[in-house]
Design goal:
This protein is of the alpha/beta class and 446 residues long. The protein has helices at 5-15, 17-26, 69-72, 81-91, 102-114, 127-142, 169-172, 204-213, 237-250, 270-273, 299-306, 320-332, 335-358, 387-393, 396-408, 427-444, and strands at 48-52, 55-58, 63-66, 120-124, 146-150, 196-199, 218-223, 253-257, 279-282, 293-297, 363-368, 371-376, 411-412, 418-420. The mean pLDDT is 95.
Length: 446
Amino acid sequence: MGLCYQESLEHFLTVFKKSGEMSEYASEFIPGSYSRRSFNYGPHAIYVDRAEGAYVYTIDGKRLLDFNNNFTVSVLGYQNKQVDQAIIDTMKKGFSIGNPTEEEVELAKMLCERIDSFEKVKFFCSASEACVGALRIARAYTGKRKAAKMEGGYHGFLDDFSFSAHPDASKAGNDLENITPIPESAGIPENRAEDVVLLTQNNIEVCEKLLRKYADELACVVMELQSGSGGIVTLDIDFVKRIRELTKELGILLIFDETIMIRAYKGGFQSRYGIKPDLTISGKTIGGGIPLGVVGGSAEVMDIVAKDIVQMSGTHHGHRLACAAGIATLKQLDDAAYERLNSMGERIKEELNGWAEKRKLPFVLFGESSVLGYAFTKEPGQTIRTHRDYWNKSDGEKMQTYALEIAARGFLPVHRGQLGLTLPMTDEDIANFIETTKEIVTEIYQ
């Protein structure tokens, strides 16, 4: 009998006993014990006391190699000297000011120089806010209302996009040309679903039919080139090229959501594809650990904001501290840094996939660059190419068993099956993770 969920659960509860107690105490003041549902790690969150380099240190006295890095934000690790100093220096100048600052202009210029599709940008306080802004721009520019998104695509918590990021398989239906939009939460008006068209990742035949069907109503297609929250799925280059051709032909704006994957290359993940969208949403890494979101795109589209055709304003938009931290972060993310990050990701993927394939074990890693997914599949040799593959091919109980056990043994991936690499990670760190994963997978299948 192999390692089972109950054994790993008991191990987790023992190792993170104090976190469990804190979670129970916090529930008296915070609904659910914490402010992000994604903090939940099995029975409760793991509470952190401090973080340094590639590690977080929990209130339980446990040191964890952090493959979460605040859900891919902290690509430089924690307590990066240049970022910390930039924040300190900026604080000394005053940081909550009702006027624009040079930091906002400098970060905007850096982004426009790095990303080919960026001619102008608009800053927000988060990528969720940036999603709101991008949709409003698209609707204003096209004069159309509907938005198409991928099933399994996550674009913040605004009502318009909060459908079928993590859908219930029993409710979604099997007709890919008429997928039922499933709201992510109670409190989302039912009529919002009328403005959502759901597409299937890497299925161009179905996508083309739907885009042509709704062309006169669609303001935009929004998609992650590699999805995150809804599960790691990397879009094929030919699929994205055809979507770009169709959106141009049909007068639909194409929006890439690079909230996560802007960390993949200096020019964003879109530079790997060589395809320019009309707009790009981003956040996370570009704020250097302080909340920041951005919409970037062509001057033609973005200038409707400058002309006051589209109104978007917030007290902390373009916040000086976030921009200063973002500048300090991007200055360190040169070609060598991206090469280092991506090579670590490739090493993990190649070594573990080769090992599992040789032993005919149904365990696989996938994804690109420094953000990977993993799955315990139902059969050896399976992989994940659409969100529905998680329903049909993934063994949920084994996924949970591994997540609890790997945390208890000193490593912190995103519990739903994701890994993010950071620059402070060493070759020894990566080797230890690979060996520990081999041990746990072997124990599960004994």
